[in-house]
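anyone seen this seq b4? input:
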Amino acid sequence: MSTSSFRRCAFLVGLVLLVTLGFRPGRGEEGQWPLSRIASLDLKAKGIEIPASEIWNSSRASLVDAVCRVGGATGSFVSSDGLILTNHHVAFRGVQSISTPEKNYLRDGFAAKDRKDERSARGYTCRITVGYRDVSAQVLEAAEKVEDPAGRSRAVREAMARISKEAEKENKGLTAEVSEMFQGSSYVLFLYQVIRDVRLVCVPPRAVGEYGGEEDNWVWPRHTGDFAFLRAYVAPDGTPAVYSPDNVPFHPKRWLRVNPKGVSEGDAVFLLGYPGRTYRHQSSWFLEVEERIRLPFYSGLFAEEIDIMEEASAKDPAVALALSPEIKGKANVEKNFRGKLLGMKRLGLVQKRRTEELEMMDYIEADPARGKQIGDVLGDLEAIYREVLAEGVEPHLLGRLTRDCKGMVLAQDVMSGAALRMRANGRRPAIWRDGAEDKRRARWESMLATHYEDVDARILAAILRRIVAVADAQEDTDWLAEVLSWMERHGPEGKGRDALAVARAVYAKSHLFDPATMEEMIQKRPEEVLRGGDPFVELSFIIQDPVQNFRRSAGVRRGKLDPVMARYIAARQLFRQENFCPDANSTLRMTTGHIRGYSPRDAVWSKPITTLRGVVEKNRGEEPFNAPERLVKLWESKDFGDYASPELGDVPVGILYDTDTTGGNSGSPVMDGKGRLVGVNFDRCFEATINDYQWSEDYSRSIGVDIRYVLWVTDKLMNAQWVVEELTAR
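predicted toks r here
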């Protein structure tokens, strides 16, 4: 099938369609619309002046072609030469990777003098959606006759992988992925053009791009210049290629035009982007697991880990630089999860959803035909989630033990390597083959680059303390007892329950922190590696079976859950008498709204636009409000250039709007009614963290940086006039 015909395919399943009911002009509206729905939206009623065909078009270039997924979030092409505008926090890891304590681009900012001076953003890729089609029938057919739940789950995954592989054969040079739109019932194949050479162009200082730090994170009013410029490169023949000095700028089919006048309160806006995950169509039992187990576990553990890393960072600039991406990432999740927990409790969301479900079932069972179609869906869901609740935090403890503890990461790598090297050389993954010693050393050196023994020991201790607490609360889990025994063996005498003493002892004993020693270990048989007595290897062996057991249980549950959730979604649609939008799943979506303030609490009204004056007013001269001295002087001299708002008499900085966004929308272009770029999305209000589970026009607000601040900072502060000229060229 050709790419053009592929793009013309529409979703076959009505589940992905929205109905637009009760829309009030000037008000926000729930909806993260997939590509298939854009053509049927009443855009004029939403204040959008351009036709739907300008936003998504299967036969010619449209705004969708100017939007890409980059760094796990969203970006937009803003020039014909592949210039990408996204967030500072999206580019953060790339800037950190080229920084040193002596030349700290993360602190001071990075501005290439010209294209030859642009630096590789290692590990970044850029993907552009070029087509889609519904493959629900093919996926469900593969699982239809499989009775075993685990087998059903496996059959679905295999069908998704097979369909993707076949599509890539039919569409040379493109990447294909099947995404689940509605659990257990709707699947869509997406085609992507993937660009593998992404470079840093202009990134403001951290004191601009992260102004306010965690104190202002998820907060309005906001004065953060959270933006950055990257560039996509391809081989001279236009095909995707990894970094090479010979590569040339990518030429997108469409790029966004800037509206240098920005927006005013009440203006209509819309976003295109790749929102990560929402859970609005999940059951009350899913929400109960979130509230009782997942959210409190991660917010509590991450808060402790952040404190540990920040304490070490305060003592050493090199440590601070190395740990900054992990601190930033975990701090963002911690505050987000804390906001979700507060929102769930404030709204009584679990009980509210449960009450809705009982009303739904009363409606379903009032009609025998409906009742037969849906069955005892609530009872089936309860039985599945009772198992999850019974497991508690154990799977999460094992997950963090194998991710957050450097010793365990290395131990698993060594054990895997030793096992894989038992195979014939040609049947091993490339990294474990003979002759790949240099690649292995580079791999381990990369793992060790952020290893600081005291930090890692204290993080391990935080996890071990939680394991001890769970073990003390129950007596029927073998793996917990084995871990306690391991602690007794390797900890100082009489301190086998002292998590920190044990953690420091095992780090002192381990030989895993030397690549040469690790190379020697993988040359042995796995049982010989285990007999070597390294404490992390022993612990890795202890948790091997429980990790696999929990994974198998999750696979079985998923196989049971998919068909139940298909019935649950059908019941919700029948009850609500609408075909609602599928939850966000990192596929391209559109959302609309207006520049609009809100009332976060009694007697408080927040305006929707902040200014440079607010940056200066917040400035304390120390983090997290340490504005660059030059920025303050520019404001004091009123050197605004052409970027000030006549209405405000100042440079606008932040904008607030009532669109429907979530994680992954970071970097999404904010466009006005004519499709012109007026801002860059980067956050939500603290009250809006709950909208991953339930959206409300009262509190669901998104935050972006005004395009006028982007231009002003790039021009006046960064002296990157050549970037501004490229951005505003017609």
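The longest helix spans residues 535-576. Confidence is low (pLDDT under 50) at residues 1-25. kinda curious what u guys think
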